[in-house]
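The protein record passed on for reference:
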Amino acid sequence: MTLRLDSMTAAPDAVKAVYGLENYIASQSGLDHRLIHLLKLRASIVNGCAYCVDMHTKEARKDGLSEQWIALVSVWHEASIFDARERALLGWTDALTNIAQTGVPDAAYEAMQAVFSEAEITKLTVAIGTINIWNRMAVGFRMPHALDEAA
């Protein structure tokens, strides 16, 4: 796969604007980092973004999330490892990431309402939107993921 363009060189102000959202989510939103890892990894899997799946898997592992937890994000519907908040967020992430197909069903929103405040739902939705921007840039511009050294 060959990189189509370097977005930071092509439009640095646009990329910096997305970084502004990223910085808000990471350091000002007050969101649990476990939830941020979850939605970033799930949206990246749904969007088929190897660059972001690689990055967010490594970040989740570095922050102490288990290999099992990370691996089962891709099959969360069948996995019992996720709690009610995580399951609601996974469903919400799927619905928003696939919005053209899902229309974001009431059931997905109701699951979120049951376990998150309106402020949390808003912040998590911004975080989902942000990772979807990154995924679209990485997939659209064919950003290659780093290759780890052989074990």
